[in-house]
Amino acid sequence: MTTDSSTSNPRKTIDMADMPLGPRQIFIMAVASLGQFIGQGLATLIGIVIPLIQLVAHPELSSGIQGLMGCISLIGIMVGTVVFGRLSDRFGYIFFFRLCPLIILATSLICVFIHAVPVMLVCLFLMGFAIGGEYSLDPDYISELMPAKWRTFMVGLAKALASAGSAFVAVICYWMITETKDPSIWPSLFYITAGIAAVMFVTRLWFTQSPEWLMNHGHSAEAQKAVEHFLGPDVRMISDVAAATSSKPQAKPESMGAFIKEHLRKIVLTGVPWACEGLGVYGIGIFLPVLIMSFKIDSLPATAPEIEHITHSVGLTFVLCIVMMLGFGLGLYLLKKESHIRMQVVGFWGSAAGLGLLLAAYLLHWPSWVAIAGFVIFELFLNAGPHLITFILPSQVYAIENRGTGTGIAAGIGKAGAVAGAFIIPVLLKSGGPTTVMIVSISVMAAGALITSFAAKKPY
Predict the structure, then answer these.
(1) Helices marked H in 181-305 — which ranges?
(2) How many helices (H) and strands (E) does the chain have?
């Protein structure tokens, strides 16, 4: 109970963990989740740009260069998650939370006006580097500012908005390509990521420093002010965080080697399955239009103009993005009903089954709708399970004093798998065709299920 300075009437306060979900928390989640939105959107954009570049500007692009174009932003994400995670633990969240969208905005505009492939590769790396910061910071802001009973759901919902980013980018690209019928429009597609990044930066000007970070670094009064800024003047700092952090001396940051040694099992559980999931989300996801054309399920005769094949594959990509959203919706529905570990394991096995159906349809020359059903099953299980759960687990496993580092390492390992997948998909297509791509992908999904089951057997 506190007293309002302007009156003698007592003012009731509420613990931030116990308050109802309101418009402020929804706004916080929406703004923080834009990092997930643009991250998946960029992956979709790259997958559309690559065949357009090859058609109109660089038909000589080798499978290796295509793989590099597909994975270079993921390399940036892999580096950015670790770097920004470590920096945010030391210096706070807010500066990096605003810097990341500015980097994405600047590099997107460079891609619009400078069309050289080497320049685009550098820009894609820097975009990924900034998105890596988003993957490290976004769940931390969301998890600490949500009511306790809504925390896991809202973190999961933020990740689910990644599929909305894919759908948004796919439908805008489809509209632009359909309207112009001109593959040379590809540089203008980067206006999409520039626009999203601009919205991200402007909305984040309202944000302030992380309350939990402030409390953990001994700034209890500033932490309370931050809570009031985010949630209102009648809300107090969550009591268990305040008690846990204000009563202990500030620990000296441990070295990365010591951190890995102490938390190895947590790193395996949160990181290695994320790497397996990364092949499905980014390896297959980035090259989805290319794979659709390779499996010959775009409903066009082989003699149709190449731009028509690309346009139809982008249209089907948009449909599969809607399936991703449905998968996330299913996963969010199950979050409070099922074990998260079980959801991840079943999701991996379901993804493998969907790819198995796709492979069977290709080898046995089944109708196109069967192959599309395989893609649908894959996307549904992947997004209801591993794509959602791998994002949630780190914030559940790690304590606040090392959450940025732990989340950063997990996301970095995840993106290492995504890098490998995005690079190897066009190489495998060139050397072994769609069959080889599917065999490798099915094996990776199965490995994700087995590793999750093994790593979660012992408590942490």
Answers:
(1) 191-204, 211-216, 220-231, 239-246, 256-262, 264-278, 285-286, 288-294
(2) 19, 4
Report the 10 Å Cβ neighbour count for 73: 33
- The helix (run of H) or strand (run of E) holding residue 281 is none
* CA neighbor of 360 nearest in space, from 293, 440, 444, 434: 434
pLDDT band for position 408 (50/70/90)?
A: confident
Question: In angstroms, rounded to a whole number, what is the distance separating the alpha carbons of residues 299 and 194?
Answer: 33
SS3 call for 3: strand
CA atoms within 13 A on the CB side of 137: 35
Give the predicted TM-score (pTM) of the model.
0.81
DSSP state of 249: P
Q: Where in the chain are the domains? A: 13-207+255-455
CATH C-level class of 13-207+255-455: mainly alpha
223: Cβ contacts below 8 Å, ≥ 6 apart: 211, 212, 214, 215, 237, 242
- DSSP 8-state symbol, 15: E
| d(C-alpha 51, C-alpha 55), whole Å | 6
Dump pLDDT digits (tens) for 218-267.
Answer: 888 898 898 888 888 888 875 444 444 444 444 555 677 788 877 788 88
* pLDDT (tens digit per residue) in 14-40: 888 888 888 989 999 999 999 989 999
Cβ atoms of 382 and 349 within 8 Å: the answer is no
Do β-strands 10-11 and 235-236 pair in parallel, antiparallel, or remain unpaired? unpaired
- Using CA atoms, how far residue 1 sits from 9, 12, 17, 389, in Å, is 11, 5, 16, 39
